[in-house]
Amino acid sequence: MLGKTANGLFWMSRYLERAENTARLIETGQRIGLTRLGNSDEEWVSVLQSAGALTGFQASHNTVTKDAALNWLLRDRDNSSSIQSCISAARQNARLVRTAITGEVWEAINATYMMSKDTLGRKVIERDLPAVLRTIRQNTALVRGMVNGTMLRNDIYDFLRIGTFLERADNTARILDVKYYVLLPSVSAVGSSIDNVQWESILRSVSARGGFRMEYGAEGGPQEIAHFLIFDKRMPRSLAFCVSKLKDNLRYLNARVSKPCDSQKLVAHIETNYLSHDIAEVFDYGLHEFIQKTLSLLADLARQIEQDFRFYE
Amino acid sequence: MTTTDIFDEMWGTDGALREPYRDFHSWFDQEDPARLRAKQRDADELFRLTGITFNVYGKAEAEERLIPFDIIPRIISGAEWYRLSRGIEQRVRAINAFLHDIYHKQEIVKAGRIPEKMISHNDAFLPHMIGVEPPGGVYTHIVGIDLVRTGPGEFFVLEDNARTPSGVSYMLENRETMLQMFPELFSQNRVQSVQNYPANLRRSLAACAPESASGDPVVAVLTPGIYNSAYFEHAFLADQMGVELVEGHDLRVVDGRVAMRTTCGYKPIDVLYRRVDDDFLDPLNFNPESALGVPGIMDVYRAGNITVANAPGTGIADDKAIYSYMPEIVEFYTGERPLLKNVQTWRCSEPEALAYVLDNLEELVVKEVHGSGGYGMLIGPTASKKDIAAFRRKLNARPGNYIAQPTLSLSTVPIFSRAGLSPRHVDLRPFVLVSPGKIHVTPGGLTRVALKKGSLVVNSSQGGGTKDTWVLED
């Protein structure tokens, strides 16, 4: 496979994953706003932060309002991570790797793009927001389904998966990074309704409410939530899950070579040194420091993959 | 229907239904126009969904546009096609022989059939190719011959495309769309398949691999990139052939071979189907500013270690000034009388011809020798006085840049419009594959149609559309 193609596949799936994650973050923010338990504008600051879009937003806006934040996250072209920008970029990369993906995958991406041009072409009014976000998530899920159902399990598929899981791990880590303080034992007045809303919003933003309830019933508190999102390998958006998938896919890619490449070594390092502990140790180490370190290691990993597989000249 | 001067491929000139359209017509008569209109919309939607677009140059943002598709097929009988394809084959054979001769002994010049300056003073002549023997002896691996029709048996070659003819993806997608929209039509009519084109193309290219290739030759398509107007087609062909689509920056010369950067290191390529113009192919040998090509590829080519399709320098054969010599060229190399007609052409470089052209501008079509895409041409009968005056000045300033031809009364084929079937002018570009000892003409081709009533300009960049082209099995 061409290095350029690997790069295109990697970014195509990263952008799709990012679009979907941002849609989920917006849904969560909107919901918290409606329950009126938190400070709504403050909540949008944290949504922007979790989406990695706050710095860019502040460069062109003085204050954070719900409307401005929504527009920035949904459709602003100046925000390279807005849903609209992500979907365009995913399609642009899909065009670049058109020969590597199946016709079904291409059509699903192209249809997603046409949908986003339609629904995000003008300002989205609040009444339409739930339906718009649902459509976006359905469309990105359709692409994932087409990838799953029509693509050969070869190196092309591996690069798609690597892009997906790197972005997803990054997203989960960022949510934890922004919200870590509500999970700290010292601040938590257990059972207070504000905390409940905050905890729920964390779970909601990674589509984990159902899974968490299944596992912990009504008993789970901050420690369990942190454990669930960091260590639980059954939870498809946890750091441990994503990193183990990254490890698998890098191994498949490198199957023909006898010695592991540098990105394989790095992913093994992340797994052994950061994701093989229990949650009490993480709290001892410092949840925030732990998450920050993980985020920077994930960025290193992305760079190492670029090099190992000759994405660029 | 009344009698007209213009030949309609469905209704002739006397309004009597022509044989190839008989079955189609009886189907069409039974159809509810409302259903057909819905089908036309479905077809447009299908094109949008599959992303069959071309980029429009000169816009601030690279805009993607659909080429309008018309659901009424253009139908050619098997017998008509047989005659036509023999003529095409003959012409393509002559073009390859001409190219070999021009870059070697130049017998045709020595025989006085073409003036020496037509070659030596021609920008399309590539000195780098002198004495070069392309692998398998093939210069034009892919050729598109533009034809127009003026009567039942009257076909004229309007233009030979011997560099990088485009449009074949539309031929294939138009057929695919028709198959999805009207499957019943294909069980009623025996239409010759065009769908093997990508497989044939790959086989044909592989057959032209250099001797250095071992085993199954590695083929790749070279594109200028996603902003090129024909990017969709480049990706489509690479995808359909199952080969890599590469850009200049994916390639470099490694150990005397052209190689592509893969995730596992550099891998040599045997046959490069390039959709990049000669000038941009190699910054070391041609335009030093080019970022689209591969530094040093010409040296690899001259050493016989890669096949470049089409070969560099083939532009000399489809130059509009050379075009006027095509009848002589066909005769000189095949020893046969040309089966396809050329349109009468006045070379404005010749004083007598220029005088005639200047006196008859209102009647003629004037074209730039190196122009393409329907730009920079004058269609006398429909041009304004101002345009004619402007062309008169251009002709006087640089006569050698222009040729002129009579305005042909192009045939029409009906399109499906709000008023039902309405005749519109068409042309035809069949696609030809050349490999050692073999010339294959795909039965059908790209029919371009001027959607505006009375218009003779079929170019997609100027409001033309396309149709599926059927060649029937007789």
UniProtKB/TrEMBL annotation, chain A:
The DUF403 domain, residue ranges: 1-309
Name of protein: Alpha-E domain-containing protein
UniProt xrefs under InterPro entries: ATP-dep_Glu-Cys_Ligase-2, DUF403
Origin species: Marimonas arenosa
Residue ranges the record marks as coiled coil: none
A Pfam family the protein falls into: Alpha-E
TrEMBL record, chain B:
Protein name: Circularly permuted type 2 ATP-grasp protein
InterPro entries, per database record: ATP-dep_Glu-Cys_Ligase-2, CP_ATPgrasp_2, UCP005522
Pfam families named among the record's database cross-references: CP_ATPgrasp_2 (PF14403)
Domain Circularly permuted ATP-grasp type as annotated: residue spans: 73-450
Species assigned in the record: Marimonas arenosa
